[in-house]
Amino acid sequence: MDFKELGARLGLEEDEFKELVELFVETGSDDFSRLQAAAESKDFEQVMKSAHTLSGAAGNLGLMDIHTLAKQIENQVRDSQLDGIDEAIRELKSRMEQVSAVVAG
């Protein structure tokens, strides 16, 4: 993950962008925890809300893998297409952990 390049796309210096990604990791982990708990309890309205929040935040930062997966989860739940949702949530968790590891670097 190239913070310099991603930051430049937003008109930010590398260190400024890294701070935003650190904030995303902090808040995004809370959003992901809510999403995961909601999925386990079959609270699909909350799954959609949490996925939407993650998708938007990731998209704003150019973290397109996370954005796409979260949007996929949101859309699948909205359309009552629950097949494969657990796998998509596991993949989203993996991508979020990757970003977290890069930030912790």
Oligomer: single chain
Q: Which CATH class is shown?
A: Mainly Alpha
Query: What is the average per-residue confidence, as pLDDT, rounded to a whole number?
Result: 93
Report the count of strand segments. 0
Number of structurally distinct domains: 1
Number of DSSP helical runs:
5
The stretches of 5 or more residues where confidence is low (pLDDT under 50) are none
Q: What would CATH call the homologous superfamily?
A: HPT domain
Form type: elongated
Beta fraction of the residues? under 5%
CATH architecture: Up-down Bundle
Q: Give the class from helix and strand content and strand pairing.
A: mainly alpha
Write the H/E string, N to C: HHHHH
CATH fold name, please? Four Helix Bundle (Hemerythrin (Met), subunit A)
Largest sheet: none
Give the C-alpha Rg: 14 Å
Specify the helix fraction band.
over 70%
Termini separation comes to: 11 Å
Describe the structure.
This protein is mostly helical. The chain has a single domain (3-104), classed as HPT domain (Four Helix Bundle (Hemerythrin (Met), subunit A), Up-down Bundle), CATH 1.20.120. The protein has five helices and no strands. The chain has helices at 3-9, 14-40, 44-61, 64-78, 85-104. Helix 1 (3-9) crosses helix 2, helix 2 (14-40) runs antiparallel to helix 3 (44-61) and helix 2 (14-40) packs antiparallel against helix 5. It is elongated. The protein starts with a helix and ends with a helix. The mean pLDDT is 93.
Q: Layout of helices and strands, plus pairs?
A:
Blueprint: H1 3-9, H2 14-40, H3 44-61, H4 64-78, H5 85-104
Helix pairs in contact: 1-2, 2-3, 2-5, 3-4, 4-5
